[in-house]
Design goal:
Order of helices and strands: HEEEEEEEEHEEEHEEEEE
CATH topology: Jelly Rolls
Shape: globular
Number of helices: 3
Largest sheet: 8 strands, antiparallel
Number of strands: 16
Structural class: mainly beta
Strand content: 35-45%
Distance between the termini: 43 Å
CATH architecture: Sandwich
Radius of gyration: 20 Å
């Protein structure tokens, strides 16, 4: 009886260890902290310093948006990473595209994007079904879900301006409460089947269920948006693949 009672916690301990080790087996570090191995894109716009991928610079603006994309494609996953801007002007923007691919003969990518940074508030009603209370000044797009550049432009409200739609605009008051505009913020993206969820610093900011016929697998891409001068930092980029 004593031996049996001793063996129970030992068996429980090893089951926990086995569970943890199995959970970690699907974890993929997309960025090794030292080089752009596993990524493809402009090595003049993007570089590695201080354990982070940095896009842009503080000397001159970026002429157009650039994307650094994984060489591998991913379907169902949870992606975690941290990002921050270094800038003298808060009007900067970036994002993490996913289930994405490069647009042929273009500098753009097509697919979903977890947006970060700011946008002219007056532009939001043109590209979404949401109108901010105040359409002047800037609106924080941190944690909003964007979709852009797919071949079927009927998906977009103003393809004559740009083929983009903001499917879920994050709540302004919530974002201003949870983000550090001058420091690191953690972004979590979960894509599982048609369902997408974005979190910023552990708080859900966007949820969406895809009803259209779009690719469910693609690359992870880091954006350095046109504008600046500024720098955008990405680090601790880890992906867990989910089985369906």
């Amino acid at each position: 009886m004593i031996i049996k009672n001793i063996l129970k916690p030992i068996a429980f301990f090893f089951s926990i260890v086995l569970f943890i080790s199995c959970g970690r087996s699907d974890e993929i570090k997309l960025f090794n902290g030292e080089s752009l191995e596993g990524w493809e894109g402009s090595n003049t716009v993007f570089r590695v310093e201080k354990g982070a991928i940095i896009g842009g610079n503080l000397e001159k603006p970026i002429d157009k948006s650039y994307y650094l994309c994984t060489e591998q494609k991913y379907e169902n996953f949870e992606l975690k990473l941290s990002a921050k801007f270094i800038t003298n002007d808060i009007n900067t923007n970036g994002g993490i595209s996913f289930r994405a691919k490069r647009v042929p003969n273009s500098n753009e990518v097509m697919g979903y994007q977890a947006d970060i940074g700011y946008i002219d508030a007056g532009a939001i009603p043109q590209f979404s079904d949401f109108t901010p209370k105040d359409t002047t000044g800037l609106y924080p797009l941190w944690g909003s879900l964007v979709d852009e550049n797919r071949p079927d432009t009927s998906r977009y409200p103003r393809p004559d301006i740009f083929p983009v739609i903001i499917y879920k605009v994050a709540d302004k008051e919530l974002i201003e409460e949870i983000i550090d505009p001058n420091g690191w913020n953690e972004i979590n993206i979960k894509a599982y089947g048609p369902d997408i969820e974005i979190k910023i610093n552990g708080v859900t900011t966007a949820e969406f269920t895809e009803k259209g016929d779009v690719p469910g697998k693609g690359c992870i891409c880091l954006q350095a948006h046109s504008g600046g001068p500024y720098e955008i930092y990405y680090k601790n980029i880890v992906l867990n693949q989910l089985e369906q």
